[in-house]
Amino acid sequence: MAGQLVACPATASKPAVSNGLPDVSLPCLGGGPDIRLADLRGPLVLNVWAQWCGPCRAEAPYLAKLAKSGKVSMLGIDYDDPRPELAVKFATTEGLAYPHLKDLDKSIQRALKVGGPPLTVFVAKDGSIAYVHHGVLTSQHQLDQLVKDKLGVTP
Hints:
The protein is an alpha/beta fold. It has four helices and seven strands. Keywords: Cytochrome c-type biogenesis, Disulfide bond, Isomerase, Redox-active center, Signal-anchor, Transmembrane.
Protein backbone atom coordinates (compact mmCIF):
# COMPACT_ATOMS: atom_id res chain seq x y z
CA MET A 1 0.00 0.00 0.00
CA ALA A 2 2.72 2.47 0.99
CA GLY A 3 4.43 1.83 -2.35
CA GLN A 4 1.77 3.95 -4.05
CA LEU A 5 2.95 7.12 -2.33
CA VAL A 6 6.04 9.10 -3.26
CA ALA A 7 8.89 8.00 -0.99
CA CYS A 8 10.53 10.61 1.19
CA PRO A 9 13.95 11.69 -0.04
CA ALA A 10 17.03 11.76 2.14
CA THR A 11 17.74 15.32 3.25
CA ALA A 12 21.10 16.83 4.09
CA SER A 13 21.51 17.92 7.69
CA LYS A 14 21.45 21.69 7.98
CA PRO A 15 21.47 24.07 10.92
CA ALA A 16 18.05 25.11 12.19
CA VAL A 17 16.94 28.52 10.92
CA SER A 18 15.53 31.33 13.03
CA ASN A 19 11.78 31.50 12.29
CA GLY A 20 12.12 28.22 10.40
CA LEU A 21 10.38 24.89 10.66
CA PRO A 22 10.59 23.13 14.04
CA ASP A 23 13.48 20.82 14.86
CA VAL A 24 11.27 17.74 14.75
CA SER A 25 11.81 14.50 12.81
CA LEU A 26 8.75 12.74 11.44
CA PRO A 27 8.41 9.31 9.81
CA CYS A 28 7.58 9.04 6.13
CA LEU A 29 4.04 7.90 5.30
CA GLY A 30 5.09 6.33 1.98
CA GLY A 31 8.41 4.74 2.85
CA GLY A 32 11.86 6.27 2.95
CA PRO A 33 13.79 7.94 5.75
CA ASP A 34 12.41 10.12 8.51
CA ILE A 35 12.57 13.82 7.66
CA ARG A 36 13.88 16.49 10.05
CA LEU A 37 11.73 19.53 9.31
CA ALA A 38 14.48 21.99 10.32
CA ASP A 39 16.63 20.64 7.44
CA LEU A 40 14.13 21.76 4.80
CA ARG A 41 14.55 24.83 2.60
CA GLY A 42 12.19 26.37 0.07
CA PRO A 43 10.55 27.38 -1.96
CA LEU A 44 8.40 24.79 -0.21
CA VAL A 45 4.68 24.42 0.40
CA LEU A 46 4.03 22.21 3.42
CA ASN A 47 0.42 21.13 3.90
CA VAL A 48 -0.91 19.68 7.17
CA TRP A 49 -3.89 17.41 6.52
CA ALA A 50 -5.79 14.32 7.65
CA GLN A 51 -7.96 11.89 5.72
CA TRP A 52 -10.89 12.47 8.12
CA CYS A 53 -10.80 16.26 7.49
CA GLY A 54 -13.50 17.44 5.05
CA PRO A 55 -11.82 20.80 4.25
CA CYS A 56 -8.57 18.91 3.54
CA ARG A 57 -10.43 16.88 0.93
CA ALA A 58 -11.86 20.08 -0.57
CA GLU A 59 -8.43 21.72 -1.05
CA ALA A 60 -6.58 18.57 -2.22
CA PRO A 61 -7.12 19.22 -5.97
CA TYR A 62 -5.43 22.64 -5.69
CA LEU A 63 -2.39 21.12 -3.96
CA ALA A 64 -2.21 18.30 -6.52
CA LYS A 65 -2.25 20.81 -9.38
CA LEU A 66 0.44 22.96 -7.75
CA ALA A 67 2.62 19.87 -7.26
CA LYS A 68 2.26 18.98 -10.95
CA SER A 69 3.60 22.44 -11.91
CA GLY A 70 6.98 21.50 -10.41
CA LYS A 71 7.62 25.16 -9.51
CA VAL A 72 7.88 24.58 -5.75
CA SER A 73 8.71 21.63 -3.53
CA MET A 74 5.73 20.09 -1.79
CA LEU A 75 5.45 18.11 1.43
CA GLY A 76 2.38 16.82 3.22
CA ILE A 77 1.99 16.00 6.91
CA ASP A 78 -0.76 13.56 7.84
CA TYR A 79 -1.70 15.02 11.21
CA ASP A 80 -3.27 13.32 14.25
CA ASP A 81 -4.61 10.56 12.02
CA PRO A 82 -5.36 7.18 13.63
CA ARG A 83 -5.80 5.42 10.26
CA PRO A 84 -2.57 5.69 8.20
CA GLU A 85 -3.90 3.15 5.68
CA LEU A 86 -6.83 5.50 4.93
CA ALA A 87 -4.39 8.42 4.72
CA VAL A 88 -2.37 6.58 2.06
CA LYS A 89 -5.57 5.82 0.16
CA PHE A 90 -6.69 9.46 0.35
CA ALA A 91 -3.33 10.86 -0.82
CA THR A 92 -3.08 8.45 -3.75
CA THR A 93 -6.75 8.86 -4.78
CA GLU A 94 -6.40 12.66 -4.75
CA GLY A 95 -3.17 12.56 -6.78
CA LEU A 96 -1.05 14.15 -4.05
CA ALA A 97 2.12 13.03 -5.82
CA TYR A 98 4.68 14.35 -3.37
CA PRO A 99 6.20 13.01 -0.13
CA HIS A 100 4.08 12.85 3.02
CA LEU A 101 5.08 12.50 6.65
CA LYS A 102 2.98 11.35 9.58
CA ASP A 103 2.58 13.18 12.86
CA LEU A 104 0.49 10.93 15.09
CA ASP A 105 1.63 12.67 18.28
CA LYS A 106 0.94 16.27 17.18
CA SER A 107 4.63 17.09 17.61
CA ILE A 108 4.36 20.12 15.28
CA GLN A 109 1.28 21.52 17.06
CA ARG A 110 2.94 24.10 19.29
CA ALA A 111 5.66 25.28 16.89
CA LEU A 112 3.28 25.79 13.96
CA LYS A 113 0.23 26.72 16.07
CA VAL A 114 -1.85 23.93 14.53
CA GLY A 115 -5.44 24.24 15.75
CA GLY A 116 -6.31 21.41 13.41
CA PRO A 117 -5.97 20.60 9.76
CA PRO A 118 -5.80 21.95 7.17
CA LEU A 119 -2.87 24.30 7.60
CA THR A 120 -0.45 25.35 4.86
CA VAL A 121 3.06 26.65 5.54
CA PHE A 122 5.04 28.57 2.93
CA VAL A 123 8.80 28.14 3.44
CA ALA A 124 11.25 30.58 1.83
CA LYS A 125 14.49 29.65 0.08
CA ASP A 126 16.53 30.34 3.25
CA GLY A 127 14.31 27.98 5.29
CA SER A 128 12.39 30.67 7.15
CA ILE A 129 8.62 30.48 7.35
CA ALA A 130 7.28 33.14 4.99
CA TYR A 131 3.61 32.62 5.84
CA VAL A 132 1.20 30.23 7.55
CA HIS A 133 -2.32 29.88 6.17
CA HIS A 134 -4.73 28.52 8.79
CA GLY A 135 -7.78 26.79 7.39
CA VAL A 136 -8.91 25.63 3.99
CA LEU A 137 -7.57 26.94 0.69
CA THR A 138 -10.70 27.87 -1.24
CA SER A 139 -9.43 28.08 -4.84
CA GLN A 140 -6.51 27.37 -7.16
CA HIS A 141 -6.17 31.13 -7.63
CA GLN A 142 -5.82 31.69 -3.88
CA LEU A 143 -3.09 29.03 -3.55
CA ASP A 144 -1.22 30.24 -6.65
CA GLN A 145 -1.41 33.85 -5.42
CA LEU A 146 -0.01 32.87 -2.00
CA VAL A 147 2.88 31.02 -3.68
CA LYS A 148 3.57 34.11 -5.80
CA ASP A 149 3.20 36.66 -2.99
CA LYS A 150 4.93 34.73 -0.19
CA LEU A 151 7.59 32.73 -2.09
CA GLY A 152 8.14 34.85 -5.21
CA VAL A 153 7.34 31.91 -7.51
CA THR A 154 4.76 32.03 -10.29
CA PRO A 155 3.11 28.57 -10.54
